[in-house]
């Protein structure tokens, strides 16, 4: 599986409507920080959820999983239910003292066309996950095992580390963090993010010509008011 396939999967299968794989590629290239700012500083996910490898990137449609701390039964079910292009978004209640996801589930997920995992909890077998090229963002890493007995929910709205995520929302992840784009706002968010990127490119051009950031951002009156 190539890096591009790992990041994007078969997006056209996972997302119906006017949004195409090309749109998602553009969002991923713009990056999480730009998309977050372009959305009016909405959609960020808690900074404690970090990539297992900083080089990991992902974008795909959310398949939400509500599971009990220290149990991974629903993760096995989610792999069975997922469509190509899905990202598993797992609310493990912030429990970090066990790793409900490891190398075996990673292989199964890749075979199913799942393009990544974000979990408010821990994973294990992190080196194997990195070597597999499977993007994983987690709160922690733990070698301890889990049970496989507790029922949960798949596909509903979850509170993921303080951010509401619904089935079909777009999840973007890179070394800066994670951001959610609501399923009905993808094209609008892309347009806003590209406009922001163009504006910042103009800032960079003007800085090379000698302009200051304080000037470009209109901060000089405020600084002068404070005596600078």
Describe this structure as you would to a colleague.
With about 230 residues, this protein is of the alpha/beta class. The protein is about 35% helix and about 25% strand. The chain is built from 10 helices and 10 strands. Strands 1, 2, 3, 4, 5, 6, 9 and 10 form an 8-stranded mixed beta sheet that branches. It has a two-stranded antiparallel ribbon with strand order 7-8. Helix 3 (about 20-30) packs parallel to helix 8 (about 185-210) and helix 4 (about 30-40) crosses helix 8. The longest helix has 23 residues, at about 185-210.
The chain-level structural class is alpha/beta
Share in β-strands = 15-25%
N-to-C CA distance? 55 Å
Give the integer mean of the pLDDT values. 93
- Largest sheet, described in full? 8 strands, mixed
Extract low-pLDDT stretches.
1-16
Report the order of strands and helices. HHHHEEHEHEHEEEEEEHHH
- Binned, the helix content reads 25-40%
Using only C-alpha atoms, the radius of gyration works out to 19 Å
Number of β-strand runs: 10
Shape: elongated
